[in-house]
Amino acid sequence: MDPEFWLSGDGIFGKAILPALLAVVFIESGLLFPFLPGDSLLFTAGLLTQQDNPFAPLWVVLVTAPIAAFLGDQVGYFIGNRWGHHIQQRPDGRIFKKSYITEAHEFFEKWGPVTIILCRFVPIVRTYAPLVAGMAGMRYRVFVTFNVVGAVLWAAGVTALGAWLGQFTFVKDHIDLILIGIVLVSVMPMVITAAPKLVDRIKNGPSTPDSELPQDNPAV
């Protein structure tokens, strides 16, 4: 029942950690799914590499995570460049909202190409900035340059921070509590997003489509 063993190289989930981490980083970077805990997973991965039996060597995570982030942004750019017009016409859904594109666009207008670097550290914005860059027709050579820098600083930087802190005795002795705390922090954005809608639904009840409302009988 030891979480450290479960997440170690010989643990139940040990072999799945690296593929799962890379998949989340890739999806959050460019597939328009912003509510994934990329930051906390990278940080946790760094912590876990400092175990006696890590799921993967630190250098492997430092190399592969930036590659996943880079490729995710590439997909986001090409989606925006090719299908941006159709995406803007889509109605809001539970995951995709036009306001996310607007926020990323405003961020882009303020900071220019360097947004591709800065947005890496801003949840939601980092998912839609590549899309906006593609929609705006940003020169691909410029985008790639800033994308490489941003992917390395974010994915490798956050992982390295976790690995550095994982060397301290206090962190090693309390890693169970730290992992639980990271999980709680990871789900907070989803809870904050869903809570107002849930409260509104409880107060007002489910909305009834117009087609289901009773219609007056036409005059004879």
Query: Into how many domains do the coordinates divide?
Result: 1
- Label the structural class: mainly alpha
What would you call the shape? globular
* Rounded Rg: 21 Å
Number of H- or I-type helical stretches:
10
Strand content: under 5%
Order of helices and strands: HHHHHHHHHH
Report the biggest beta sheet as strand number plus sense, adding barrel if it closes.
Answer: none
Number of strands: 0
Low-pLDDT residue intervals, each spanning 5 or more residues: 208-213
Task: Please characterize this protein's 3D structure.
The protein is an all-alpha fold and 220 residues long. The model is unreliable at 208-213 (pLDDT under 50). The chain has one domain. The longest helix has 31 residues, at 58-88. Helix content is 70%, strand content 0%. The protein contains ten helices and no strands. The chain starts with a helix and ends in a 16-residue tail after the last helix. It is globular, with a radius of gyration of 21 Å.
Task: Provide tags for this entry.
about 220 residues, 10 helices, single chain
Put the structure in a nutshell:
With 220 residues, this protein is mainly alpha-helical. The chain is built from 10 helices and no strands. The protein has one domain.
Give the arrangement of secondary structure elements.
Elements: H1 3-6, H2 14-30, H3 38-48, H4 58-88, H5 98-111, H6 115-118, H7 125-135, H8 140-165, H9 169-173, H10 175-204
Helix pairs in contact: 2-3, 2-4, 3-8, 3-10, 4-7, 4-8, 5-7
